């Protein structure tokens, strides 16, 4: 299953990057996400154990996330029961508190029955995910401390990640299979 969406949102790319990078909060606001726990990693890469509820089924997997702050986040998994999972997020600055967010997703699982269930249940999943992140950003903006000089700032610790030429270095690959 492949899906893509691109939107311009009224938030800084740093804010949206931080929301997407904060995987442990996904179960609080994303459809289907039941669990997300960072197992290891740091500012440029982390491994996450995740569980998604897809109708009556539960899909559990470990993903690798690569961060190029604030332009790109790539999430990959290729261990059973996932044959191939890739979420490629890009964040393009469009001016003060405005950015273009693009999400390209590929999901293939080893079980044909589960793959058919995913296709049937997830229909417009990527647009729904994007809408959920937009709603989360709005909620975070409303709950921000008004005394802060930057109302788009999240309550997270930020790390500076050097920005390269837009490609991931070959040394940042998942344990098996590499980026596709």
Topology:
Blueprint: E1 2-9, H1 13-21, H2 26-29, E2 33-41, E3 45-54, E4 57-68, E5 72-77, E6 82-93, E7 99-109, H3 112-122, H4 125-143
Antiparallel strand pairs: 1-7, 2-3, 3-4, 4-5, 5-6, 6-7
Helix pairs in contact: 1-4
Tell me the count of domains: 1
Helix and strand content put the structural class at alpha+beta
What is the percent of helical residues?
Answer: 10-25%
| CATH architecture identity | 2-Layer Sandwich
Strand % is: 35-45%
CATH homologous superfamily - what is it? START domain
Radius of gyration: 16 Å
Q: Briefly, what CATH class?
A: Alpha Beta
The N- to C-terminal Cα distance equals 15 Å
State the CATH topology: Alpha-D-Glucose-1,6-Bisphosphate, Chain A, domain 4
């Amino acid at each position: 299953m492949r899906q893509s969406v691109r939107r311009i949102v009224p938030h800084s790319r740093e804010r949206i990057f931080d929301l997407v990078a904060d995987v442990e909060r996904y179960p609080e606001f994303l459809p289907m996400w039941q669990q997300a726990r960072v197992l290891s990693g740091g500012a440029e890469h982390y491994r996450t154990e995740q569980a998604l509820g897809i109708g009556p089924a539960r899909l559990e997997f470990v993903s690798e996330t690569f961060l190029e702050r604030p332009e790109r986040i790539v999430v990959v998994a290729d261990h059973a029961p996932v044959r191939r999972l890739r979420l490629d997020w890009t964040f393009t600055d469009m001016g003060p508190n405005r950015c273009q967010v693009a999400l390209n997703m590929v999901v293939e699982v080893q079980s044909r029955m589960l793959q058919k269930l995913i296709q049937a249940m997830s229909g417009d999943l990527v647009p729904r995910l994007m809408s959920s992140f937009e709603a989360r950003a709005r909620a975070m903006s409303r709950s921000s401390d008004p005394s802060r000089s930057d109302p788009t700032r999240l309550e997270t610790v930020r790390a500076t990640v050097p920005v390269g030429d837009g490609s991931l270095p070959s040394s940042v690959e998942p344990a098996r299979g590499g980026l596709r």
